[in-house]
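Look over this today:
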Amino acid sequence: MDWRTVGLLALVGVMAGVLSGLFGVGGGSIIVPALVWAGLSQKEASATSLASMILMSVSGVASYAAAGNVDWLAALMLTLGTVAGTQVGTWLLDKLPEAALRWLYVIFLCSVIAEQLMRVPERNSRIVPGLGSSLTAIGVGILIGLLSGLLGVGGGGVAVPALTMMGASDLVARGTSLLAIFPSSVSGTAANMRRGLVHLRNGLLVGFSAAVSTPLGSLAARSVSARAGTYLFVLYLMIVVARSIYAAAKVTPGLHTAHRPH
C-alpha cells in the first residue's frame, strides 16, 4: 500500500468518524467507495468497511453513553435482530446479485427522508419499554443486520429514524444506533473473514482513524438543536440516496449497459 492510499484511507476514516458521531451511522457510504478506489472488489470493500466499524462504534458509544444518551434495553433488542440479520446478509453477499436489494434500499431511504421531514423528535423523549417496542426493535435489527452484511453499511440510516419513531430522542437514537452497530460489525466481520473477504490492514487503518474523530461528531450533535440535527441528517441521507442510486444502477444489467456506445 503506497502513502497516497494510506493518506486517503486515513482521511476517509476521519470523515466517517465525524459522520458516525454526528448522525449515529457507520459511515459505509464513504468507506466502501474509498476501498474500491484502493483496489478492493465491491464484496471485499463491503466486508472491510464492516470490519472498520468495530472500533468506530466503540468510540461513538463511549461518547454518547458518557452523556446518558444510550437506551441499553432497546440496543439489546436491536442486537438480537442484527446478529441474525448479519449472518443472512453476509451469506447473500457471497451468493446473490445485489441489484434488487440495492434498489429496495434506495426506496427505503427515500421513505425515511419523507418521515424525517414530517416529524422532528423531541430532545428529551424516551422509548416506553414493552412487548411492542421490543418486537419492533428486533425486526429493525434484522433489517440492519441484513443491510450491514450485504452492503457494508452500519445500518444507522435504518436504526436512527426507527428509534425516533419508537419515541427516542434524536441523541438517544444516535447513541443507541452506534451501540447496535458493534455486535453486527463483529458478527458480520467474523463471517466475512471465514470467507476471505476482509482486508484487515485497510480495515484497521480506517477504523483507528474513525475512532479518533467520532467523539468530535457526537460533540457536534449535542451542540445543535433537535430540528437542526434532523435537517442535517436528512441532507446526509440525500447524499447517500444519490450515491446508492448510482451504485444500484451500476449493478443493474439493463441500466449498466444502456449508456455504452455501440
